[in-house]
Amino acid sequence: MAGNSFGQLFRITTFGESHGTAIGVILDGCPAGLTIDLDFIQSELDKRKPGQSKITTQRKESDTVQILSGIFEGKSTGTPIAMLIPNEDQRSKDYGHNVDVYRPSHADYVYDAKYGIRDHRGGGRSSARETAARVAAGAIAKLFLKHQGIDIFAHVTAVGKINAPNLESNDISELLELREANIVRCADPATANEMIEFIDSVRKDGDTVGGKISCVVKGCPAGLGEPVFDKLHADLGKAMLSINAVHGFEYGSGFDGTELRGSEHNDIPLPKAKEEQQFKTISNHAGGILGGISNGMDITFKVGFKPVATIMHNQQTINAAGEAAEIKGKGRHDPCVVPRAVVIVEAMAALVLADHVLRNRAVKL
Amino acid sequence: MAGNSFGQLFRITTFGESHGTAIGVILDGCPAGLTIDLDFIQSELDKRKPGQSKITTQRKESDTVQILSGIFEGKSTGTPIAMLIPNEDQRSKDYGHNVDVYRPSHADYVYDAKYGIRDHRGGGRSSARETAARVAAGAIAKLFLKHQGIDIFAHVTAVGKINAPNLESNDISELLELREANIVRCADPATANEMIEFIDSVRKDGDTVGGKISCVVKGCPAGLGEPVFDKLHADLGKAMLSINAVHGFEYGSGFDGTELRGSEHNDIPLPKAKEEQQFKTISNHAGGILGGISNGMDITFKVGFKPVATIMHNQQTINAAGEAAEIKGKGRHDPCVVPRAVVIVEAMAALVLADHVLRNRAVKL
Amino acid sequence: MAGNSFGQLFRITTFGESHGTAIGVILDGCPAGLTIDLDFIQSELDKRKPGQSKITTQRKESDTVQILSGIFEGKSTGTPIAMLIPNEDQRSKDYGHNVDVYRPSHADYVYDAKYGIRDHRGGGRSSARETAARVAAGAIAKLFLKHQGIDIFAHVTAVGKINAPNLESNDISELLELREANIVRCADPATANEMIEFIDSVRKDGDTVGGKISCVVKGCPAGLGEPVFDKLHADLGKAMLSINAVHGFEYGSGFDGTELRGSEHNDIPLPKAKEEQQFKTISNHAGGILGGISNGMDITFKVGFKPVATIMHNQQTINAAGEAAEIKGKGRHDPCVVPRAVVIVEAMAALVLADHVLRNRAVKL
Amino acid sequence: MAGNSFGQLFRITTFGESHGTAIGVILDGCPAGLTIDLDFIQSELDKRKPGQSKITTQRKESDTVQILSGIFEGKSTGTPIAMLIPNEDQRSKDYGHNVDVYRPSHADYVYDAKYGIRDHRGGGRSSARETAARVAAGAIAKLFLKHQGIDIFAHVTAVGKINAPNLESNDISELLELREANIVRCADPATANEMIEFIDSVRKDGDTVGGKISCVVKGCPAGLGEPVFDKLHADLGKAMLSINAVHGFEYGSGFDGTELRGSEHNDIPLPKAKEEQQFKTISNHAGGILGGISNGMDITFKVGFKPVATIMHNQQTINAAGEAAEIKGKGRHDPCVVPRAVVIVEAMAALVLADHVLRNRAVKL
């Protein structure tokens, strides 16, 4: 199956290149009867759009979404929802210098190797601009999940070697407010300031830096995830790894947990009070997922992003003929991708969860 | 789609419970004309089977594979290859005590929550015994990849806090020999001894411990991987995360790479000598994959396994009614899963790569 | 995706060749908690098995099904149900003469052309023996549908130019009894006798003849079918056309309906009495399906089978080198396929409906 | 999987309602490097568009296609091709009378039953307007097939009881010219005149009539089709049955072939001259497909369309409350759908064949 679709029952297909006419998405499988809040979709896109602050790319795109189908009188009808985001600021000529030269650590070479042809304007299809389409669809997934009592929250927990402490609050509204109060989208204000300062200095160096985003899902019922291959964390992992620049995924105790003993790592269940439904454990090394199925505890995972490849330094590289060439970054790029990626992580998580909510409906009499 | 299939064109579907009649797999999409070496398949299964050494479970299973279809006169015919592995040592009564009690950090509770019914004998479908079916199919994937010039090598690089140094050799035959010379399957003999000693002491404590497996794919041509969702590393990540006990996946520079600057992380391409096909870079932080597509360099990734949940200690837990209960591990379990998981990691990697070799055939005129 | 799977959520994958070790099926997605009546599954297989009567092939196969997984204490667990049917009467030597010669109107040539290799024993994978696996899985689908109040009935309505009149009864138990009272499986006793006599005379001529099977689905709720491609009748059509020897499918008014005017063809809805749920129309040219979605009326369709290609006459043909050759039918074959195909039609219909029952659960809030 | 996608490797997803903003399609999997002739795409759409002649609906839509992505410098790049067709003549108010009344033999009732909500303007998603998106994608499939030496030709062979004789010509250019020389799209001029006259009289009666379309595929290599479920004719059948108003599909000898004996029906292969590749048979009852795989002969099939449900007569029906109601057709509708459906049949056939060309690449070493 061609690779531009994601999900089984709540399924998206995205299209579009960085400097083409438009990018967009078809969402097939959104249940009928959902109230579609267009302002919410736009506000999600606004969190991803370029030009938000001094630590993001200065490309100017309003990223205004148009809904073409699937909504009638404000509600989803069960038919495909198509959304379009026109490209506005297509300074393709910035990329004329890339026609024949392969930018280091970009996808230029591999697209040529794979397809024998490449839209070289701004990375073409390999541009992270494609993720705007995911955010639009993810916003609808969030609306569906909200209706099911499920909430998702992500924020930046590392930039370079600067790490945020564990969150003290457990309240998503409060966390969202803390996060949106700063331009790096870390819910810890002190760390946020440190991160911003650091990114700004990196930017001034013409350089870039990586980072990490942590995500928690609250209110997820027990039972989501389809063993043995479509385990909930396996689908979350694939979703995250499909985001541009992501190099690592871990859930629950993650890589740190590999150093523990079973007697330390096991999460001990608590007896339920009468009529309580909720399964609870003392610790949550499982990250809310056992055997690939949600257990009702918070789902937690972390995503690692490498530094953006486009830097404003001279770099050695090769051209399409394999000869030595030199390149200097032009165009408008992010010094650090994580502030804008927070909403992408949330969107992909929402898409995975919405899909598994629907898939879970089919499993018992 | 139900969750027991993996892959698109080179596609497996597995079945079977830990203590049922048999486990097995159908491989649909293996190209016709491949010579099927049954001894090789069995030798792969032998690397995963229980009872191999003092640091694995003492359950006795010969894991003898039977091929039921899809092979004619020693070659694949392009029709589905069904393989069966009978369960021999089904001491189901060892699990009688689990009928009503949820073992901590096992999937018992979530299977009940999801399906309303559960085969409680030895974990049923959630048992890692299912991975034998993956190894059998993965062996055929390896034979196909070998025919395409692609080799896969994994070994144990961490047990608890004991980490192996970087490999000095680049030769897969040599590495395989080093790895198979010890029971923990680490290609560094000194570290291997340390690991074995540690696992044995953990086992004597009635406890378990986690670890890490690193994998390299050599000889992979440029061009494998299907953007934007079925990126090669995204499919590898999902494959690995679908293995029992895996909590983390990273490729190339991984989580460490998130701390670097772009100027440090970028892999600088080397000019090609005349008639050279191979794309080469000075460093390989990309782990052989750019924009989700292989670039021809070694593909490298790492997988983290949590400690096995079954320990020989008394643990507090709850029963199906939600009441407090106590459990003590019985049955026969591994103190550390990574020695037997090496071949599972290789098998899943082989399945992903075989699938992408086939998918890549469809992309250009 | 490789072609040996059918269905999305209630999904089967079959394997096996006519003269291999065994054929079988994995059913993935059967809801948990269904009581699995093994005797019923076997009784369905008995209706398809060879050697039932003088008008079927004399190959001797007991077609005894073994269940390998997915059932615990008599109920489905939500995990894959694997079923195995060993091949017993493998007179492969009957087929030695076929190694190099392409039998007219068989798949011999195309398998060689497609795969470059072919299991020539009895048609290998192209043999209708594969359909036994479908019948086994279809039996479980029927059990699930029965639980949902949905019943399926098919019978032979034409052999050659002999056509059965429209059914007078509307009662499935009665119809089943009428059908099973004769060896051709036509619910009209007089026509059945005529058909049997005709098939027997054709058999004595060493020849074969085609026929038609009609099917009705009762108790299907409104709402099954997923526009715009997975319309209920489109999936039924694909299911039927995937059965060996089928050359045509029509539903409701079918090809005859193309000759009508809209004013004749339209089905006029009847006002509902208070508290009645059921949508009813005066006529049912729609065959119970509008816009690809069931409307609650009886679903009706018809399937056309060509005559079996193996005849006991000398026939001109070619060998693998393209040279003229002569062939005379050997082996044991059916003079007319429809009596044994009735239960295959029902099985495939059941698989489609079970799949759509599950898919329909995902469409609204 | 949600039902608005078709194909595996050459895969389309359509969206849009009759009276929404736009309809469109994403084609994912078109091989890179294909020259995209926009004029050809538009000319195909022109053959389907409304208002072409006195025997089609008078709705005015230019059906001008816009390509949003996937094409660079005139060639496909291997990335998704998104195409948009704005809706221009949205006289939604014509449909105000349908809000609460279920039109007989339309999908109004079942959409309400399935989704609990319905875009009642002009049939919404159930409108045949959706097929314009298929025609746009099918045009690209045709360009790809042309590149592979495969041609498709369909024409009207029956309107009501008027049947066209068998074609005398075997030349597709000539046939196309004959077909496009008349407004009913029958390649036999005398029959075409009769059909046109008949449709016009039916139209004057305010009534509608059904018909049949026959299709031939020339130049198809042996080997396309994936047993045992994705047989070439099974996928063609599903494709055709997914088109609005289709009630029947048959290939090769079809339903008529069920009346023959094997000795009459078998297609006898002809010895090949030296160096000839092509497999040939004296007759072609197989319709170019054996065992679900193309054999290199012409592929032939026939599709039956019921009469359009909207008639200009008063009809009894019910409203959403189940009460008796009366309806009289308004809006602008076709008296007979087949003249405009010829290019839809060709488009769907092209999509199936393109998909199977790509799938066939994966089957052997």
Automatic annotation (TrEMBL), chains A, B, C, D:
Record GO cellular component, one term: cytosol
Catalysed transformations (reactions): 5-O-(1-carboxyvinyl)-3-phosphoshikimate = chorismate + phosphate
Protein residues bound to NADP(+): 48, 54
Free-text remark on how the cofactor is bound: Reduced FMN (FMNH(2)).
SUPFAM superfamilies: Chorismate synthase, AroC
GO biological process, one term: amino acid biosynthetic process
Entry-linked Pfam families: Chorismate_synt
Protein name, as recorded: Chorismate synthase
Taxonomic lineage: Bacteria, Pseudomonadati, Bacteroidota, Sphingobacteriia, Sphingobacteriales
Gene name per UniProt: aroC
